[in-house]
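Researcher: Excuse me, tokens okay?
***
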Amino acid sequence: MNSIDQNNSTSEESNIGHFLFVGRAPLKHQLEKFAKQLQNSYLFTGPPGAGKFDLAMYFARTILCPKQGCGTCSDCRAIAQGVHRDLTVLSRSGNFIEVGDVRAALMFATQKPVSSSHQIVLIPEIHLAQRAAPMLLKTVEEPPIATIFIFTAESIQGEIVPIASRCIQVEIPRLSEIGIRAFLDTFETPPSNIETIVAGSMGRLDFARWLASSEDLLKYLKRWEAVLSSAPTTPWQLSELTQQLEPIPMESTNIEDTKAATKRRRNETDQIIMALNYLLWSILKSRPINSHLASQARQLISQAVSSLQLNISYSLVVRELIFSLSQISESEK
């Protein structure tokens, strides 16, 4: 196996079925059915943070484990540790999946399984493989008999459509609140942090993981309570509050400048989106759900998230949001 998400600890891997399918039981039955009559290609689609990669790994474990994914045998342990010889996970070299990234995975696909009846090529985020799609399509059209491809994607468009049409497609909904709470149980999360994590993650498993492992990030979310407690009336007060809500800086990295800038922007955007989730939860918790502020907050925060995803300056987005919420809050007094 070439690479694996290092955030997945062995402990979490052994408990993965206890939270991935909470509130999503039909999904488990669907995967169990697929495992009994295997096809060559599967595509897991769904929104960011739905747990697509985790579910793909769960499915791979079900296929390679002699006991259909027991979680304790040598095969399951090897998968959890990233060393199973019949599983390779593509790790892209940049922001997109390039031809060079795909070539090594396809060479693996032509080999024979070492210890299992099948071997698996897992390619996450296939929607980022537009340039490498023709090469992938040729192999997916005529796959080696013992090789199973598992893809994940947020969306299917452009050059990826022909690949998707040749896959068994599995739609993955975002986790429910009870699913996130079940996930937090695997970490023995302090009770004082649970509500903040649930509010900030809003069903996104990646956000819940990040929040559960970072006290600094939890403290950052709590800073946003100042938006409710203060109503800046001057440009200076607005600027001061905006500065207090700046995202936590990334740790220093050796990644080349272009990649580092992209990663930094994604990191900042994700932090603010989590904070906005938490802010909305705080507003709804402290105000009647049908109040003017509550209804407007939903709309304003949704607009702010959309603006952030369009790469609009976070300081401009935050300033406008704070000012609008302050104006509404003042009008309710």
